[in-house]
């Protein structure tokens, strides 16, 4: 029997108030610990990864217990700007050199599939979360100029990913922004991440899944044919499998030089009128460091973020949050001509990144029935979909063709 401390990295998951927590149907009501028996799978974490995992497992007919030390949908998930992109932070051309063409191509193609799978899942489950397909516009910046973007567009098209290279003239004519070049690509989306997560949890719970909060796991053990998790309250919970979906507060067994924690800042404007038509249906980000990213919601709010820093704790400074919000708003104005005035909401949060821009999805080293989804990088929601598919296959005894691409590194 393997028996080890289940300590996870702990952090203040956000500072300020994300717009999403103020929207209706953005959380669910949990149970208190009572009468919990053996289940097929325990899912630790009630954010987007845990919600997707619980929905997939309950859909497959498995009994599921969801645990979180915080209220549901009140961790890292509401800090997302929910730009649900198929594009990975590390460009395809760069990733091909970094990890080899075969794995890089597989990662990018799987990301495209994941965004489309999520949109279809939301449609099928009829989750009201403002999910909308949107193209993504990737602007030239200090990390990639026009030649690099042309090569990137060609590389994507070569493996079957739609990508349209826009010259400076074309970009300015269609979008009114002045940059050397851009790539316009399909297969991305946006939505309300809190409503999405709450909707997925609700679906799982209607199928019999139980959600308990607050509860904290302190120890874990693998037994012949199952697992046991001890809680800080003194209970012992058993299941056939466990999946840790604890985001950036990952199990310490998963610590690796391949990933680190950084900080990001975001804002949401008041509902605005007279925005450019293209802004209502396009996600925009830039090949820059630090980079700006933005989109709008159905009410005309501009939701923007960026100014990332390689530090885990700088996001907690309210003065820095105010300064970063001013910088983001000014960059947005300079690029698009849109002046949002004083933001209605500002927030900041830590998030983890990996050297190759890919998530870590695997069985925890030393175990065979304890798994984890670490949806690191700027594509957290997209990577959570991939993680759910890979881990659900593992639990079902099936191999996923891309599991080695996203394995523990």
Layout: helices, strands, pairs:
Elements: E1 2-5, E2 15-16, E3 39-44, H1 48-59, E4 64-67, E5 83-84, H2 92-99, H3 101-125, E6 132-139, H4 146-158, E7 164-167, H5 168-175, E8 181-190, H6 193-206, E9 210-212, E10 217-223, E11 226-231, E12 236-244, E13 259-268, E14 283-286, E15 292-296, E16 302-309, H7 318-336, E17 345-354, E18 360-363, E19 370-374, H8 380-395
Parallel strand pairs: 3-4, 3-12, 4-9, 6-14, 12-19
Antiparallel strand pairs: 1-10, 2-17, 5-8, 6-8, 7-8, 10-11, 11-12, 13-16, 13-17, 14-15, 15-16, 18-19
Helix pairs in contact: 1-6, 1-8, 2-3, 3-8
CATH superfamily of the largest domain: FAD/NAD(P)-binding domain
What class, by secondary structure content?
A: alpha+beta
CATH topology of the largest domain: FAD/NAD(P)-binding domain
Low-confidence stretches: none
Classify the beta-strand content into a percent band: 25-35%
Number of helices: 8
Oligomeric status: single chain
Please give the domain count.
2
Descriptive overview:
By secondary structure, this protein is an alpha+beta fold. It folds into 2 domains: 2-79 and 194-256 and 357-395, 3-Layer(bba) Sandwich (FAD/NAD(P)-binding domain); 133-190 and 259-354, D-Amino Acid Oxidase, subunit A, domain 2 (D-Amino Acid Oxidase, Chain A, domain 2). It has 8 helices and 19 strands. Strands 2, 5, 6, 7, 8, 13, 14, 15, 16 and 17 form a 10-stranded mixed beta sheet that branches. Strands 1, 3, 4, 9, 10, 11, 12, 18 and 19 form a 9-stranded mixed beta sheet that branches. α1 runs parallel beside α6, α2 (92-99) crosses α3 and α3 (101-125) packs across α8. It is globular. The relative contact order is 0.21. The model has no long low-confidence stretch (mean pLDDT 93).
